[in-house]
Amino acid sequence: MKKIDEFEGNFAWMSNFSDHSFRDEDGVLWRTVEHYYQAMKTINMVDRGRIWSISTPGQAKRIGQEVALRDNWDDLKFDFMTNGVMLKFLQNKGIAELLDSTKGYSLIEGNWWHDNIWGDCNCPKCENKPGKNWLGKILMLIREGFSNE
Ligand SMILES: [Zn+2]
Hints:
By secondary structure, the chain is mainly α. It has 2 domains: about 1-15 and about 95-149, YbiA-like (Tetracycline Repressor, domain 2, Orthogonal Bundle); about 20-90, Tetracycline Repressor, domain 2 (Orthogonal Bundle), CATH 1.10.357.40. Helices cover about 45% and strands about 10% of the residues. It is built from 6 helices and 6 strands. Helix 1 runs antiparallel to helix 4 (about 75-90).
């Protein structure tokens, strides 16, 4: 199967860092999926607010590494990620069409930062670790949902 294995350059819109804002179920406007995902890690509203208001997704990620995790985050994180990515594509028609146009391609979040949960790290150290590629899988699920509409 043909594949797209880097969410950069022409495919940067697939990344959670991409500049596509969306509103969640409570009407809160998030700058990026990364902001939303990092904020959902905690139920501390002050920390959530810090993440919400910070300008870049990289900064949001850094704050997210310091917050007190909510109960069962490891079980919940897949649902929040799926929800954030879904809302992003539902509310940004242009990239929803782009996603649809990748039909027939396997989507793999190749990376160099040792993320083998959401993606698949390409560094020599991780060579023999299969990446679970959950972000790629979520994108492919959403793509399938769109084409069934
Ligand atoms: Zn690695």
